[in-house]
Each structure stands twice: as C-alpha cells, then as structure tokens.
Design brief:
mainly beta, 12-stranded antiparallel beta barrel, two-stranded antiparallel ribbon, 1 helix, about 55% strand
C-alpha cells in the first residue's frame, strides 16, 4: 500500500492520555531510503458548540522519524504535542514512543503475513507526570491479509498488543493506576487510485496493580483521505469510544458508539520526506 497512514489519527478524543501516539494502524510502506520522516497536523473537535463547557477542540502536530535497517526491519520515534482550546487550555506534549518492527516475519501464503513489534515509552506528558509514570513497554503481533485478487487495494489487519506500565506508585491519590492493558485492533483498508479509506475497532481490557479488572473498552474510527502528491496527503475522520455493557452500571453505552453527536471529528494533513 503506497499511501502513508502512519499518522492516522485514530483516537484524537483521547489525546490527553497519550493514546494517539500509540495507534498508527498502517506501517510505513517499503522504501529504499535509510532515513525518513513524516510530519502531521491535525485539528479535532467534538460536536458540541464551541461555547459549550463540553466542547473539546485540539490542534495537534506530530513527527515520525524512521530508520530503515532493511526492507523488513525499521525503527521509529513518534513525537507529538497539542494545543487545547477548551478545558485545561494550553500547550501539552504527548509521551514519546520508540518503536521497532519486523514485517513479513512469517508469510505462509502470498496474501497472509505476520509482523511483530515492540515499543518503549518516554514519559514527558502532564498525565505521566501526575501519575508518576516511569515508562511503558508494549509488544505487538499483527496478521495482515491482502485481497488484491478479489478487490485490488483491499486489506485486513488484526493486531494483538500487550502493554505493561511502570509507575512509581500503584495509585495516584485514590485512583488505582493501570499496570497491564491487553488490546486487539482489527482494521480494514481500501485504496483506489489516490483515494484511501480505513476503519478499525480496538477492544481493550486493563488491570490495576492490585489486580482489579476494569470494564472492557471499545474504540471505533473511520477515515477517508486523498493522496494529493507523493509527499502530501489529507484526510477526514471520526472516532468514538465506549465501555462494554455492564448491567450493574445502567443502560448499554454501546448504543452511543455510532451516535453522530458523540464522536470526535478531525481533519489531518501529512507530509512525508
């Protein structure tokens, strides 16, 4: 896939927690360049009026620096920051993620392949400071299925990820902190000419240092974009999240997952060197 979705803004609604920096869906395409960089600019907002106390508007800038050791092995660093127009207004850094990936580690067929990756977090965000987060490690296993023989440009990805957080303390005040997070990302991608479309679902469970299991979460995102030139791309998207149904906590929140008044909407511009 030639279109660069490495800065795919999957969950801008959760920027303050640093999740945006964790969730590029599509790896960078194969390249003969040893070094590369992608720069992104995103504007996101929810559906509430700008004067509402529930409004959430953010302008985010990001940079991904990549070193390609070979066609199948690469290292990258994702750095991002945002300006918040609502709530706690101001400029904030997101945590930095350092990533190593090995693609096509196993390819039993021409259409199916397996990739693996590992990530290390450098805590620089306000959230990390408030919770005394020292670092985090995450391992990824991704299976990719290309269906060009059925519909050129169609591909599916399924990634299983396990993250371990390292905090100085097990709680922040009375709030228990998350130690482990197990998640699964399922993504569908389709490209035709210079247009690209992506949609994905992330299902996640987490556990505190005391072993308490938190209610599972589901995040959905969809994006449509256009490759303006070989270097520039633009896209529009939306994302939303909910907690799985728990009969002890009231109505099913999954009913709101596809409510068009609930998601965060965004526009993103990317430039690749």
């Amino acid at each position: 896939m030639k279109y660069n979705l490495a800065i795919y803004a999957m969950v801008p609604a959760l920027l303050s927690t640093g999740i945006y920096a964790q969730e590029p869906v599509q790896p960078l395409p194969p390249t003969t360049k040893q070094w590369g960089a992608t720069f992104g600019m995103d504007y996101s907002r929810n559906a509430y009026d700008s004067n509402s106390y529930l409004a959430d508007r953010n302008l985010t800038a990001s940079a991904t620096i990549t070193y390609n050791l070979s066609q199948s092995t690469k290292f990258s660093a994702l750095i991002s920051g945002r300006h918040s127009y609502d709530g706690e207004r101001g400029d904030y850094w997101d945590d930095i993620w350092l990533t190593a990936t090995r693609s096509n580690l196993w390819s039993p067929t021409d259409t199916l392949s397996m990739s693996v990756g590992g990530r290390v977090l450098l805590p620089i965000s306000d959230t990390a400071s408030k919770t005394d987060l020292q670092t985090a490690l995450r391992g990824d296993i991704q299976f990719s299925l290309t269906l060009d023989h059925l519909l050129p440009g169609l591909a599916f990805h399924d990634s299983v990820r396990l993250q371990k957080n390292f905090h100085r303390y097990t709680t922040a005040g009375d709030l228990p902190l998350e130690e482990y997070r197990l998640s699964n990302l399922f993504a569908l991608e389709y490209t035709v000419d210079k247009w690209f479309f992506s949609t994905n679902f992330v299902s996640a469970e987490s556990w505190s240092y005391r072993g308490t299991r938190h209610s599972p979460e589901l995040t959905h995102a969809a994006e449509v974009g256009y490759q303006i030139t070989d270097a520039f791309s633009a896209a529009l998207g939306m994302t939303n999240s909910a907690t799985y149904y728990d009969p002890d906590r009231g109505p099913n929140p999954l009913n709101d997952l596809f409510d068009l008044e609930k998601p965060t909407y965004y526009i993103t511009l990317n430039y690749t060197l």
